[in-house]
Amino acid sequence: xxxxxxxxxxxxxxxxxxxxxxxxxxxxxxxxxxxxxxxxxxxxxxxxxxxxxxxxxxxxxxxxxxxxxxxxxxxxxxxxxxxxxxxxxxxxxxxxxxxxxxxxx
Length: 105
Known about the structure:
Layout: H1 3-29, H2 33-38, H3 40-63, H4 69-96
Helix pairs in contact: 1-3, 1-4, 3-4
């Protein structure tokens, strides 16, 4: 990949992941009241992750330089992977409260 495209690629990748997390949160928010209440803290965690990703995207736009992009990508990937591991735990906990057929669709 050309160095000048590196920052834009990183920004687009994080934006794509943010959209996926947002879709999950939206689906959880559409659950019936009692089911939604069981996972309210998980939904709040997802919104905090979305806000954190927004901040990272802004940081990339403001600070990413082609000459440092590979270092920036590795740092951002590590931060994202840490957030994603927390998200997986939160999502698994949320799914325990729901029956297999109660989510989605």
